[in-house]
């Protein structure tokens, strides 16, 4: 399988490198040519446009930031859909609205191209070590065709259901993480008020039943203020997407949404 990869950020770059090192013929494209310099020591080919990349690929992986980026890269005369051959697959590793994947799938199906949504969790270090988590939505046969490529940078690769379900799963995970941030930050603040050093509380709870990824994240970077600068906007986006999905389904977020809203407020990124 020939692979094209677009989105060479802190997470996408190590994913792409793992694909190249896995022996797959790989083509890259980036808006900023400087981004490609890190791959000068690899066998990866460089395309002049998303369309040129798509023409040389059986699988195109997108790891861009948001919905608008997916639309921009796949549409138009120089987009992925303009040149990809029938039988090809587009895998959306970005965290976006499930409807973005479904809408793209409808356009792609006209050309005999499949779309799967495959958001990832774990970050750049996990990608570099081949232990990202990939949650995939889409046709089971298509997912299995792509699984060996995903396995170069991920373990496990979990097929969660139909197209869009990978995004929904990732958004729910991020909603829960955001909610955990609020409870962890509150507990650390309460500890200080009660005369317990937050670092000592983190050390103890990390080995106890109250442990959470969020608590350890806050302990490692020094609080919500610093995290807000790194992830506040992205978490705000993801919570908004979950709320849109819930509203469409007539569902209520309940306590987890209340806690997530509290965290966004504390980070200065209210929903």
Automatic annotation (TrEMBL):
Example GO molecular function: NADP binding
Active site: residue positions: 170
Presence of the UniProt keyword Oxidoreductase in the record: yes
PANTHER family, sorted: 3-HYDROXYISOBUTYRATE DEHYDROGENASE-LIKE 1, MITOCHONDRIAL-RELATED
Keywords, alphabetical: NAD, Oxidoreductase
The name this protein goes by in its record: 6-phosphogluconate dehydrogenase
Keyword Amino-acid biosynthesis attached: no
Similarity comment: family membership: Belongs to the HIBADH-related family.
One Pfam family per UniProt: NAD_binding_2
Organism annotation: Mycobacterium scrofulaceum
Span of domain 6-phosphogluconate dehydrogenase NADP-binding: 2-161
GO BP terms in the entry: organic acid catabolic process
Signal peptide, first to last residue: none
Domain 3-hydroxyisobutyrate dehydrogenase-like NAD-binding: start-end pairs: 164-251
